[in-house]
Structure formats: structure tokens, C-alpha cells
UniProtKB/TrEMBL annotation:
Main localization (coarse): membrane
PANTHER family the UniProt entry points to: INTEGRAL MEMBRANE TRANSPORT PROTEIN-RELATED (PTHR23526), MAJOR FACILITATOR SUPERFAMILY (MFS) PROFILE DOMAIN-CONTAINING PROTEIN (PTHR23526:SF2)
Membrane topology: Multi-pass membrane protein
InterPro entries tied to this protein: MFS (IPR011701), MFS_trans_sf (IPR036259), Sugar_transport-like (IPR052528)
Gene3D superfamilies: MFS general substrate transporter like domains
Places the protein is found: Cell membrane
Transmembrane segments: 42-62, 74-93, 99-121, 133-156, 168-187, 215-241, 247-265, 277-294, 300-317, 346-364, 370-390
Record Pfam families: MFS_1 (PF07690)
Protein's name according to its UniProt entry: MFS transporter
Length: 403
């Protein structure tokens, strides 16, 4: 497949950076906004679960559009629906917590359509030998967005005192999505190829000797941790600190550490280090949760946040690169890249949903701090599961790189 010029990669990174900035600006405080209206962990869990339902369905259903028609329009639709979601939140105001499922489904559709199109375009402009480097840049942009967005929104919410501050933040986020949509028009339309195979993700997993089986299992474990951690940690920080400015400060510090760690990983992390990196990353990501056993405070959560930001690239760069490398290993897999991206997302979604069902189930019975910490420890061990199911593949990859 002919790769895109470097300018297209830069444009795609810019669109991605703006999307991440808008999401960090408003998304960091979205669950806090809902929590302040109704202090209910289970409600927050259902909101997160509804998003994942919509994300999975969007990936699968929109796959036909992305493969057979215009993937750039799908990217723009994802940005447009993201903006529409925050417009709905603005219109609903304090009543938003009463519309958890409609709001969650809307946000999930925006996330699913955007990331499906983005992942396909990302695959088309990268190759196996530069994918870790490109992923490092994505991590850097995510870290910069995490530094600027939450700190700025936390400051504005605290300065403008409550509802007015949230409205300003949501409006600013809406505007950034609009800028990203405009910028996306400078990305060149990419050729559509072939017919979309609706059941290919399931066929691939059922195929004897499929190399996607261990990868799908590893992605499941990734989702098992990520689904709950994505919304719960920020909420725990707010509950411990009782101020949005502290949550913004938490995001600034952890994202600054993440920026450094992703920069280092993008520069020095090589494919031959993937196995050792994933194992070390999995162990360390679990270890940084342990201080919460003794006390849940802003300080212990910050220690966990800094540790997670520092060690996450060791786990995430191999996880991202391995699945995309599989998509490019043959002409047949390249031709089925949309279906394989859908398979990748459905694997992640399955793990996220199981994690969220566990969260909802446990907290419906016992919402004590101890129950939450035990749940975090159990789900926090999931990255080790990814390493276990991928260990043979990682060692074969290392041997191949050393020859």
C-alpha cells in the first residue's frame, strides 16, 4: 500500500491533538458534573457502560461506511457528534444526570465513529518500523492535552464558581471540536477498497491458528482495566480534594510526567523490548495502586497517578503496535484492515464492559471505600493477563528482530 506523505501524518496528529484537548478540557470534569447533581457511583457506572455499548455498535455498523465510502466524513461526523453531545449537556444543565443513557449513547457514538475512522487512517499512513515512534507522538500530544485542558478547565470552573464555569468549559470544548473538523478538510480523501465483511471479526477469531486470538485476549485484559480506571480515578480525586482546581492540578502533574515518559518511550523503546516492557509495566501499574490500601487521599492518589503516567508507555506502546502490525503482515490482512480494527475495538469493549459490570455489581451491594480499592487492585492486575497471553508472540517477535 502506498503511504501518505509526511504532511498528512502531521495533519492527522494535529486533528488528534485537538480532539484530545477538547476531550480533556471537558471530559475530565464531565463525571464530576454528573456526580455533583447526584452522588451515585452506580449512576456513573451506567453512564460509562452506555458509552461502551454505543462505541462497540458504532465501530461495527460504521465499518461499512468507512471501508466502502468516505472515511474522512466519518472522522468529521465523530467530531460533529462530540460537539453536539456537549451542546446537549449545556441545554440540560443540572438535569443531565436524569438522561444518563441518551447522553452516554450519544457520546459513545461520537467516540466510536471518530476512532474507527482515525485508526484506519493512522494505519494507512504508518508502517511497522515507524509505528512505535508515531505512537510516542500520540502519547506526547495526549499528555500535552492532559496538561493544558484539565488545568485550564479546573481553574475556570473554580474562578467562575460552579455552573457558570462548567458552561464556559463545555462551550470552549465545543469550539475546539469545530476547529478540528475544519482542519480535517485538509486531509486528503483516501481510496475506498473492497466490500465490508460484517462477520469477519468473529470469523477471524474462529479461524484455526488465528494469530488474532492471543491479541484479542490481550486487548480484552487491557479493556478490563481501562474501562473503570478511565472514569473512576478522576472522580476519586475530586471526592478526596472536594475542589475542581485540585483535579486540574492532578491532571497537570500526571500528564507532565506522561509527556516525559512517552517522549522517552517514543525515542528509545524498540520492538525487541516489548515483552520485558509489558511485564515490567504490568507489575509496576499494579504496584502503584497499593498505597491506596492504607489511605485514599489526594496524596496517595497523586502517587498512583504519577506512577501510572510513568509506567503506562511500557504497556501501551506494545499493545498498540502489535495489533496494528498484524493488520499489515499480508496483503489479505491489509485488505481487511477495517474489519480488523473493528475486531480490535470489540475486544477492548468486551473487557471494558465486563469491568464496568463488575464495578456496578460490587458497588450496588457495597459502596465502601474498601470495596472500591479491592476492585481497583483486581482490575489493576489485568495488564499482566495481556502479557501472559502475548508472551509467546512477543518472544517470537524479539527473536525475529535479533536475526
Amino acid at each position: 500500500m502506498k503511504k501518505a506523505p509526511q504532511s498528512q501524518a502531521v495533519l492527522l496528529l494535529a486533528v488528534n491533538g485537538l480532539y484530545l484537548l477538547a476531550s480533556a478540557l471537558a471530559g475530565t470534569f464531565l463525571n464530576v458534573y454528573l456526580w455533583k447533581s447526584r452522588q451515585d457511583y452506580v449512576m456513573i457506572g451506567w453512564f460509562a457502560l452506555s458509552q461502551q455499548v454505543a462505541v462497540g455498535l458504532s465501530f461495527w455498523l460504521a465499518g461499512k461506511w468507512v471501508k466502502e465510502h468516505n472515511k474522512m466524513n466519518a472522522l468529521r461526523l465523530g467530531l460533529a457528534v462530540s460537539g453536539f453531545f456537549y451542546l446537549l449537556v449545556l441545554l440540560l444543565g443540572g438535569r443531565a444526570s436524569s438522561y444518563i443513557w441518551p447522553l452516554g449513547l450519544t457520546l459513545g457514538i461520537s467516540i466510536g465513529v471518530f476512532w474507527l475512522a482515525y485508526n484506519i487512517i493512522y494505519f494507512e499512513i504508518t508502517e511497522a518500523d515507524n509505528r512505535d515512534f508515531f505512537n510516542g507522538w500520540i502519547g506526547l500530544l495526549g499528555s500535552l492535552a492532559g496538561i493544558i485542558g484539565p488545568f485550564l478547565s479546573g481553574w475556570m470552573i473554580s474562578r467562575l464558581q460552579g455552573e457558570r464555569g462548567y458552561r464556559v468549559v463545555f462551550m470552549l470544548s465545543l469550539g475546539i471540536y469545530a476547529v478540528a473538523a475544519v482542519l480535517s478538510f485538509f486531509l486528503k480523501k483516501r481510496k475506498s477498497e473492497g466490500e465490508y465483511l460484517w462477520l469477519e471479526p468473529w470469523r477471524e477469531l474462529r479461524r484455526s491458528g488465528s494469530r488474532w486470538r492471543p491479541v484479542a485476549a490481550a486487548l480484552f485484559f487491557q479493556g478490563l482495566r481501562g474501562g473503570v480506571f478511565a472514569f473512576l480515578i478522576d472522580l476519586l480525586v475530586y471526592i478526596a480534594a472536594q475542589t475542581e482546581s485540585k483535579l486540574g492540578q492532578f491532571a497537570l502533574i500526571t500528564s507532565a510526567v506522561s509527556l516525559i515518559s512517552y517522549f522517552a518511550a517514543g525515542k528509545w523503546f524498540k520492538p525487541r523490548y516489548r515483552s520485558a516492557g509489558m511485564l515490567a509495566g504490568g507489575i509496576l501499574l499494579l504496584a502503584v495502586i497499593v498505597p491506596l490500601v492504607w489511605k485514599v487521599s489526594y496524596g496517595t492518589l497523586l502517587v498512583m497517578g504519577i506512577g501510572t503516567a510513568l509506567f503506562m508507555p511500557l504497556y501501551m506502546l506494545p499493545m498498540t503496535s502489535i495489533s496494528f502490525d498484524l493488520m499489515g503482515e499480508s496483503a489479505e490482512s491489509v485488505s481487511k484492515r477495517v474489519e480488523l480494527v473493528v475486531l480490535r475495538e470489540l475486544s477492548l469493549m468486551s473487557g471494558r464492559m465486563l469491568g464496568m459490570f463488575a464495578f456496578i455489581g460490587v458497588l450496588s451491594v457495597n459502596s465502601s471505600q474498601l470495596a472500591i480499592i479491592v476492585l481497583l487492585l483486581v482490575l489493576g492486575a489485568a495488564p499482566l493477563g495481556s502479557w501472559v497471553v502475548l508472551s509467546r508472540k512477543l518472544h517470537r517477535s524479539r527473536a525475529g528482530n535479533m536475526q
